[in-house]
From TrEMBL:
<dbReference type="InterPro" id="IPR016039">
    <property type="entry name" value="Thiolase-like"/>
</dbReference>
<dbReference type="InterPro" id="IPR000794">
    <property type="entry name" value="Beta-ketoacyl_synthase"/>
</dbReference>
<feature type="domain" description="Ketosynthase family 3 (KS3)">
    <location>
        <begin position="3"/>
        <end position="414"/>
    </location>
</feature>
<comment type="pathway">
    <text>Lipid metabolism; fatty acid biosynthesis.</text>
</comment>
<comment type="function">
    <text>Involved in the type II fatty acid elongation cycle. Catalyzes the elongation of a wide range of acyl-ACP by the addition of two carbons from malonyl-ACP to an acyl acceptor. Can efficiently catalyze the conversion of palmitoleoyl-ACP (cis-hexadec-9-enoyl-ACP) to cis-vaccenoyl-ACP (cis-octadec-11-enoyl-ACP), an essential step in the thermal regulation of fatty acid composition.</text>
</comment>
<dbReference type="InterPro" id="IPR014030">
    <property type="entry name" value="Ketoacyl_synth_N"/>
</dbReference>
<keyword id="KW-0443">Lipid metabolism</keyword>
<keyword id="KW-0444">Lipid biosynthesis</keyword>
<dbReference type="Pfam" id="PF02801">
    <property type="entry name" value="Ketoacyl-synt_C"/>
</dbReference>
<keyword id="KW-0276">Fatty acid metabolism</keyword>
<protein>
    <recommendedName>
        <fullName>3-oxoacyl-[acyl-carrier-protein] synthase 2</fullName>
        <ecNumber>2.3.1.179</ecNumber>
    </recommendedName>
</protein>
<dbReference type="InterPro" id="IPR017568">
    <property type="entry name" value="3-oxoacyl-ACP_synth-2"/>
</dbReference>
<comment type="similarity">
    <text>Belongs to the thiolase-like superfamily. Beta-ketoacyl-ACP synthases family.</text>
</comment>
<keyword id="KW-0808">Transferase</keyword>
<keyword id="KW-0012">Acyltransferase</keyword>
<dbReference type="InterPro" id="IPR014031">
    <property type="entry name" value="Ketoacyl_synth_C"/>
</dbReference>
<dbReference type="Pfam" id="PF00109">
    <property type="entry name" value="ketoacyl-synt"/>
</dbReference>
Length: 417
């Protein structure tokens, strides 16, 4: 069968460096760090006392207070970014066939804060079970997609992908596949996460995954730097409107880019560590190239997973060199996690948005905080250190990898009619 073409017609973002799409891009271009001391709880006894939090957000400006009480923060973030994406797309919700519109969302953890708070409250009592009636609906990850479909009346495929830090890219790839197979006309997709809590920070500290650079948080997320010591927790989300090309053209939609391929693989190696030689990473990039029917030489920019961990960064670089060969030296590579921190299950969504904007603007966002490049890093590679670079980008790749060995990759290109 002939596959449909899938385009991006709207985006929304809520990140540690900007609460709107416009603010997010402006601060990506400037190389702003979103890391700062934690304000959500007293972190003074924690090994890591900072994170990339969303800042200056009043939920009441976006969601009715009564409705917000039914949602964990990760779902509230999903509602906010989705509203911006729908407005950005200029979709006429009264004119579309809502049975042909779906929601596929990504979240690696779901309502962690809700779970933590309810269990802690129970533990304070005498053993009598007193739980909020919204405890379960607030906690389970799928309710983000449920709330979105209910709000907008979207009656197509509806579910949440849970594949750790690859969750949002998983969601985008799934939405892309459903549309190109003709199963829907439009998808609201993306991801959100709200892990900055006692349980979230404590759990990742126990894994020794987080940076402990408490004396200088703004420089703690430093992918490819010799002195990196772990990732920086982030929160927020992003949404994309994916649309079948002819449907978008028929309504006169502005098209921001086209998704041309998606890759999927598993490391089958370790619960939390990446394969040391980037075996799964190289396969997922090659799978995406094969799916898109393009050569490695056609890619201009890779937004890497690049979490700022000692093992992961170099493994991904080695995988890029394996897949791209000599063309690796013509690419721009950057990790926007150096600015946003790691949004876990939402990472793929905020990074896909950054990649689409790089296509549109002709600007590569930087990898900040690099002062001493890792001695294992090939110095001939262009990792776009510390300052944005102007470059015509026709094809961009975005990688996300998750605990459990989950690997997803998407390829996006400038729309050319």
């Amino acid at each position: 069968m002939e596959l449909k073409r899938v385009v991006i017609t709207g985006m929304g973002a809520l990140t540690p460096i900007g609460n709107t799409l416009e603010e997010y891009w402006a601060n990506l271009e400037k190389g702003v760090s979103g890391a700062a001391p934690i304000t959500k709880f007293d972190a003074s006894k924690f090994k890591t006392q900072f994170a990339c939090e969303v800042k200056d957000l009043n939920i009441g400006d976006f969601i009715d207070r009564k409705e917000a009480r039914k949602m964990d923060l990760f779902t509230q973030y999903a509602m906010i970014v989705s509203d911006e994406a729908i407005k950005h797309s200029k979709l006429d919700l009264d004119a579309i066939n809502k049975e042909r519109v779906g929601v596929i969302w990504g979240s690696g953890i779901g309502g962690l804060k809700t779970f933590q708070d309810e269990v802690m409250e129970f533990a304070k009592g005498d053993g009598t079970p007193r739980f909020n009636p919204f405890f379960i609906p607030k906690m389970i990850a799928d309710l983000s997609a449920g709330h979105l479909s209910i709000k907008y009346g979207f009656k197509g495929p509806n579910f949440v992908t849970v594949s750790a830090c690859a969750s949002a890219t998983n969601a985008i790839v799934d939405a892309f596949n459903y549309i190109r197979l003709g199963r829907a006309d439009i998808f609201l997709t993306g991801g959100s996460e709200a892990p900055v809590s006692e349980a979230g920070m404590g759990g990742f500290n126990a894994l020794k995954a987080l940076s402990t650079r408490n004396d200088d948080p703004s420089t703690a997320s430093r992918p490819f730097d010799q002195d990196r010591d772990g990732f920086v927790m982030g929160e927020g989300g992003a949404a994309l409107i994916l649309e079948e090309l002819e449907h978008a053209k028929a309504r006169g939609a502005k098209i921001y880019g086209e998704i041309i391929g998606g890759g999927m693989s598993a490391d089958a190696y370790h619960l939390t560590a990446p394969h040391p030689e980037g075996e799964g990473s190289s396969r997922v990039m090659q799978d995406a190239l094969n799916d898109a029917g393009i050569t490695a030489e056609e890619v201009d920019y890779i937004n890497v997973h690049g979490t700022s961990t000692p093992l992961g960064d170099i493994g991904e670089i080695n995988a890029i060199k394996k897949v791209f060969g000599e063309h690796a030296y013509n690419l721009n590579i950057s990790s926007t996690k150096s600015m946003t921190g790691h949004l876990l299950g939402a990472a793929g969504a905020v990074e896909a948005v950054a990649s689409v904007l790089a296509l549109e603007k002709g600007i590569i966002p930087p990898t900040i905080n690099n002062t001493t490049p890792d001695e294992k890093l090939d110095p001939k590679l262009n990792c776009t250190f510390n300052e944005a670079q102007k470059k015509e980008v026709k094809v961009a790749m975005s990688n996300t990898f998750g605990f459990g060995g989950h690997n997803f990759c998407i390829l996006m290109k400038k729309y050319e009619g």
